[in-house]
Amino acid sequence: MTKSLKVSLFGVAMAIAAAVAYVAYAQRPDMPQVRFSMLSGELVSTADLRGKVTLVNFWATSCVPCMSEMPKMVQTYNQFKDRGFETIAVAMEYDPPNNVKSYTERNKLPFKVAMDARGEIAKGFGDVSVIPTTFIIDRKGRIIKSYLGEPDQAALHELLDGALKEAA
User: How far apart are CA 62 and CA 40, in angstroms?
Assistant: First the structure.
């Protein structure tokens, strides 16, 4: 194969890769329009999160894998919070509020904790029923990744680092 043919094939391959990346990036779905009702009484809307990279985690105090991943969620939040990162832990509809409040206080969760009392937030995110389920939203309010089960921490941190470097 000649050098010019190799260069041409490389150029075609790069163009195809760029087109695939553009399509994948351009088709990121928007975060659903929901209102989060925090344990603190604060209401947070989707619009309030614009400009931040946000991790939305659906969980319950009765969920063993959720309890296993929660200390990692705290570590992730603490690592990225000063760079425009937000975390909202959404307790499922069936989780008793007093259990959520007790767990949150006992474990000193440093991020926002929301109650999904009527299941509307889970419904807005595609009828979340299996937990833990986590969504990563970019600064423009688009879902860039979702995880069913506990995310691989190294891959999650790499994704967050890249998303935090992007402009709003």
Answer: 21
Instruction: Enumerate the domain spans of the chain.
Output: 1-29, 31-165
Give backbone dihedrals phi and psi of 96, rounded to 5 degrees, phi first.
Answer: -60, 130
Instruction: Dump pLDDT digits (tens) for 68-102.
Output: 999 999 999 999 999 999 999 999 999 999 999 99
Phi-psi region of 37 (alpha: psi -120 to 50; beta: other; left: phi over 0): beta
With CA atoms as reference, report the closest residue to 36 among 122, 104, 110, 105: 122
Amino acid at the residue 129: S
pTM of the model: 0.82
How confident is the model at residue 29, as a pLDDT? 87
C-alpha distances in angstroms, 53 versus 57, 85, 87, 142, 168? 13, 5, 9, 9, 9
Its CATH architecture, for the domain 31-165, is: 3-Layer(aba) Sandwich (3.40)
Q: For the CA atoms of 143, 113, 124, 161, what is the dihedral angle to 10 degrees?
A: 0
